[in-house]
Amino acid sequence: MAEPGSSIIPDCCVAPWKRHIMLQLRQRDRTQKALFLELMPAYNRLLEKAELLAQFSEKLQPEPNDVTSTTHQDPCWEESGPDSDQGPSSPILRVKWQQEEEGLRLVCGEMAYQVVEKNTALGTLESQLEERQSRLAALEVSAAQLKDAREQLAKQVEALQARNATLRTAYDTLRAHRGLQEAALRRLEEEARDLLEKLVLRKARAAAERNLRNERQEKAKQARVSFELKKAAKRAVSISENPDTLPDLVREGVEIPALAAEPVSLESEGCEKWKRPFRSASATSLTLSRCVDVVKGLLDFKKRRGHSVGGAPEQRYQSLPVCVAARLPTRAQDVLDAHLSEINAVRFGPNSSLLATGGADRLIHLWNVVGGRLEANQTLEGAGGSITSVDFDPSGSQVLAATYNQAAQLWKVGEVQSKETLSGHTDKVTAAKFKLTRHQAVTGSRDRTVKEWDLGRAYCSRTINVLSYCNDVVCGDHIIISGHNDQKIRFWDSRGPHCTQVIPVQGRVTSLSLSHDQLHLLSCSRDNTLKVIDLRVSNIRQVFRADGFKCGSDWTKAVFSPDRSYALAGSWDGALYIWDVDTGKLESSLRGPHCVAVNAVAWCYSGSHVVSVDQGRKVVLWH
To answer: What is the CATH number of the domain that holds 576?
Structure first.
């Protein structure tokens, strides 16, 4: 190090070996100074304590002036007598010094006690310091661990971000692909809609052309029949009682009328005219084409029922009513509390005088319609669950019912107990209908199946798997129609295993009704509408709705009138609504005995009576 008075020589003028020595000396100074950095504060504290102790010791030592003043002021000195220059006596001084020594001892004891307390406090602080240092070390270790964990999490976050970026890229790609697919789907839907419209228009044109052709053929047939009738009316014919002359008349070209109920006589006075022995009020209003249609329908009806499934000849059913014009009901004639709980189904027999009702009390009541009243006929027992549907066979001798007991049951009219149980469904059976013979039936269930049955052997001949709950079924010549919970009506060919057609409707289908000519289908659905479907073109022809009309349940039944002129359905508020099928307008609404939802309605085959049943156990006969 340089002397205080020496001058500082710049480093640039110093030799390298001197610079090296100076650097080493500076390094040594810094090293040794670092060693004394902790000692110097401790030394300074010791000096301060020493100074403090010195001050305490100075205060404890008595000063001479104090002793002198005390001696002068002490009365003992005044009592010493004439020798004032002499000092105090030794006993007095000893006492004095003892008192002072005692005071000093007390002060020293207090200070020692304070020192002990300070040492105890210092030990406590040192223990706290050590504890805090240990906590600090533990926290430093935890901080290091957390730092490592943070680094690992940061690496994971980076990996996840990279993965998210990859997934986002893939998502954007898929989204763009989806947009392309949706655009393609929209184009295909538009094309399908256009094709469907074209197909509907083509079917409509074909149907119009076919109808026009049929009308022309019908007009030609009517003209030919009129001409033949006029020609036959102008000729005088004598009918002999001898049957051998009948072939001669046939050879001569004379047509003998086949519709006459009794023998006719001819009068030849100027212009010969036919005389009918009987003419009904309804027959006077019929046109010739209507008569031809009625007779053709009768012949087709008997022809369809002429043979059973096995080919054995089946009996021809007598007294088949033909409704020329249905009569609109206007008032309630009879009201009965027929069952113990709500009534779900009602059906007229083929002769229009026998009525069947089924309800949740597991009973089927048969009623006779006599003079505008319902008279109890019989109660059919043995059903395993609530009755959801009833139907008569074409002869009116058997009753088929669908139940919630996963089966349909068959009764013979006149017998109380069930004749057969058609089991095989795995859920509630919602519909059971006869086909066009008494030996075959069809059932629909909530287990998404429709089954065909051979009633002669109580055997399921076919099971059709459908895609939704089946709420109702109807049967035609070679077709089965089912209404479903997925808002669709499906058509099944009895001779094939596949669905031939699907017609979508708005709302769950609650019931189906097929017209007697099998050309129109009436459906009721939970969108509170009735729809008439023209089966010739497979298109919805009419949609019926009315203010206040609302389906009360998933099994609300609607029916055609026997002549297909009207559609009838019951509403949730107990009212009956009747629409005109030709005009599509609401013909009338009937209110009266029903106070709750009407579940089902039935229109007798003669067209004279209507029966409705509700959730409040009531059966109402309307006329």
So the answer is: 2.130.10.10
Order of strands, sheet of 576-580, starting from the edge strand that comes earlier in the sequence: 558-560, 566-570, 576-580, 586-590
Q: Which of residues 179, 209, 239 is at a domain's end?
A: 209
* Residue 530 covered by a domain: yes
pLDDT more than 70, % of the chain: 78
Those residues with Cβ within 8 angstroms of residue 330's Cβ, 6 or more apart along the chain or in another chain: 588, 590, 622, 623
Instruction: Choose between 293 and 397: higher pLDDT.
Output: 397
pLDDT at 405 over 80: yes
CA–CA separation, 20 and 25 (whole Å): 9
Whether residues 365 and 514 share a domain: the answer is yes
Range of the domain at 165: 151-209
Going from the C-alpha of 195 to that of each of 6, 191, 203, 491, the distances in angstroms are 116, 6, 12, 21
- Give residue-wise pLDDT tens across range 112-130: 778 788 888 888 888 888 8
**pLDDT above 60: residue 52:** yes
Is 284 a member of any domain? Answer: no
Mean model confidence pLDDT for the chain: 80
Q: Kind and range of the H or E element at 257?
A: none
CB–CB of 599/556 below 8 Å? yes
By the 10 Å C-beta count (0-12 exposed, 13-18 middle, 19+ buried), 266 is classed as: middle
CA distance between the termini of the chain: 139
Check residue 370 and give its pLDDT. 92
Domain count, the chain: 2
- Using alpha carbons, select from 387, 408, 484 the residue that is nearest to residue 453: 408
Confidence of residue 177 (pLDDT cuts 50, 70, 90): very high
- Cα–Cα distance, 141 to 144 (Å, whole number): 5
Q: How many CA atoms, within 13 angstroms, populate the side-chain half-sphere of residue 564?
A: 15
In sequence order, the 6+-apart residues with CB closer than 8 A to the CB of 76 are 88, 89, 92
Q: Of the candidates 367, 397, 366, which has an alpha carbon nearest to the alpha carbon of residue 381? A: 366
| Centroid of chain to Cα 379 | 39
Q: Look at the block and give the residue holding tokens 């003669």.
A: 606
SS3 state at 223? helix
DSSP 298: H
